Amino acid sequence: MDGLLLESVDALRRWYVDHVFGATDVTTIDAFDPSTGAAFATVPVCDPTVVNNATQRALVAQREWVRTTVQERGRLMTACADRIDSIADELALLLALESGKALETECRGEVSLVVEIFRYFGGVAHELKGHTTPLDENVIGFTTRHPHGVVAGIVPWNVPLMMMGYKVAAPLVAGNASVIKVPEQTSFTLIRVFQELTDILPPDVVHFLTGTGDLTGAALVADPNVSKVSFTGSVETGRAVYEASAKLIRPVTLELGGKSPMIVLPDCDIDKAVHGVMQSMRFTRGGQSCTAASRVFIHRSMIDDFRVRLGAALDEIVIGPALDPATTCGPLVSARQRDRVQAYVDRAVDDGLDVQTFGTVADGVDWDGGYYVSPSAVTDPPVDHPIAVEEVFGPVVCLFTYDDVDDALARANDSEFGLSASVWGRDITTCLRLADALEAGIVQINQNAIMVPGIAYGGIRNSGLGKEGSLEAMLDSYTYAKTNILNYGG
Ligand code: NAD
What we know:
This protein is α/β, with parallel strands linked by helices. Helix content is 43%, strand content 20%.
């Protein structure tokens, strides 16, 4: 591993301990390099006392922050964007080291995206507007937008920069303070951002807390100083967060998992649709994407051709260490995640399903030490098989043959999730009909790219509650509307 990178990690750990704990005697957990499985650093764990200290300080800071003008808040978000951009290379390296996501095909892109997120929310600062309602002669009702106070933002490891961006820039520009629960697997990437943000923003309007979910995360969600929780992660944890918040009657945004369908119509451009699978499955991220199109419904007339072309594309994937520039797909994030994903594939094989494995393994890969899983495609698994129903969160795509498009639609909608969906075809009338009938928070036609700031995303059913990423989502999630009534008749 790069010695300079390790020195930088060590310096970050020391800075963080000094900044947050002011002491050296802290409890820690190990950080592992997914490309080799080696422990490379220790991560401080913020206990409930540290959490409460952070929220208390954030609460005090928020009272001043909300009094700054929207112009100033917007300007500071833009300054944060510029500062993050100025350390883009370093962040991409740290992210690749910790997450196992390929440096060139994944990590650099995520850094660019988080810069755009801060820029976007800097730009919409002026849009914190309300509505007016004429009530009577000389009487008008109007709404004004107000921040909740301290927002708890809980971030997952698969896209930690992006999710941190949405949970810092949007709440802050709306006048909240933000306290971030950093995912244990990607602590140093976010500590590096925290270092820059604390240099730009007024003291205490943003806190980043490292540690475990069951201690640090749970303490943050239950903290009395928090007024709003924004969680991104698994359904299981989302449910626990929702229950804890319900006890406190506290608003919650939940961005959870998915098992997203993609309907491939017989008149579509097959190469584009194959590219759509590759893009949406985020094989470059080991398939660890909440919006992954992991259920692809393909018309019988094209299934063989589709499988051949998809197989060719999958075989071009170069599986290797995340920091190697030639790698297009790194390891999964953890041994636990690798074992979980591999267990789905092994069970499918044991059950006699049609499982094909692809990809080219780079020379010298530490396959046994690192957390590698080859991309695979499973054709026509039984509809109730775990691999067909559950979120695998790995490089595994299920292909289903259909004859009748309405049957494909019914099967596509038959899921406990409802995050994302897409339709691929040339007949726009059919595409629009299906898009209208697909039950998901985001539906695309002949396209599988999302996550640009300004486009709201979020799911229905077990995929979550509320939206993130746009002006409207910012207003809904991070402000409340106050009703005012004014009699100006004197
Ligand atoms: P996770 O639920 O295990 O952890 C997410 C975060 O919650 C981590 O920071 C963790 O430390 C914290 N946490 C764990 N237990 C907690 C508790 N009791 N209280 C408070 N916080 C707690 O999820 P993960 O494995 O990190 O992420 C993968 C999951 O995230 C997948 O299911 C994926 O679909 C989902 N995801 C969803 C979206 C979306 O926008 N819908 C985006 C990315 C990831």
